[in-house]
Specification:
Layout (H helix, E strand, L loop, with lengths): L1 E6 L9 E6 L1 H13 L17 H14 L5 H66 L5 H61 L1
Antiparallel strand pairs: 1-2
Helix pairs in contact: 2-3, 3-4
């Protein structure tokens, strides 16, 4: 069981701050629900949290309890600090692993989005060249085949505009959004590293 502290300003809740108890499986269900829901297609869904290692925590607490009666106060305090530091290291390692995985996934999605945008733009450029060539052929004479070239040229021009619009929309709405998430996740990694450094200095004193 995991305790979750919640803060919300939504009117659906009677209090702004409250806590709930949930099982790890419920977090997995929530994550899968977002991923499988078509309404959230295109959104960045963070990976599901890893299962907590409760056995390791119990083992550390057991060691601390067993040593309380046989250790001096200084030894007991030192062991307690070491165990607490281990917990802190586990926490930061978990956060670092999550951020690195999240950042890499966003980076991969951003690269694929840029590639898709370039592909649409290249298609639009190809349509433009084909349409221009057909238009040039169609204006050489007034025969039926030349009129046909002009009609097809108009079709390619309309299709070019659609592809260009799709490319611009993807670049503005998807690629830029992914780049924003990429910068934010990179900043979060830097902040986490800074916190770890500050904590190391604090523990050293």
């Amino acid at each position: 069981m995991l305790g979750v502290q919640c803060n919300s300003s939504l009117p659906n809740f009677k209090q702004n701050e409250f806590s709930v108890v949930r099982q790890h499986e419920e977090f997995i269900w929530l994550h899968d629900s977002f991923v499988e829901n078509e309404d959230y297609a295109g959104y960045i869904i963070p990976p599901a949290p890893p299962r907590p290692d409760f056995d390791a925590s119990r083992e550390k607490l057991q060691k601390l309890g067993e040593g309380e009666g046989s250790m001096t106060k200084e030894e007991f305090t030192k062991m307690k600090q070491e165990l607490e530091a281990y917990d802190v290291d586990d926490f930061f390692e978990h956060e670092r692993t999550f951020l690195v995985e999240y950042h890499n996934r966003v980076k991969d999605a951003s690269a694929k989005s840029d590639k898709m945008t370039r592909s649409h733009k290249n298609v639009a450029d190809d349509y433009n060249r084909i349409g221009s060539s057909l238009y040039a052929l169609g204006t050489q004479d007034s025969t039926d085949i030349c009129k046909f070239f002009l009609k097809v040229s108009e079709l390619f021009d309309k299709t070019r505009k659609i592809e260009a619009r799709v490319s611009a929309d993807e670049d503005l709405k998807l690629s830029d959004l992914l780049k924003y998430y990429l910068r934010e996740s990179q900043a979060a990694k830097g902040n986490l590293q800074l916190l770890q450094s500050c904590l190391a200095v604090l523990n050293a004193h």
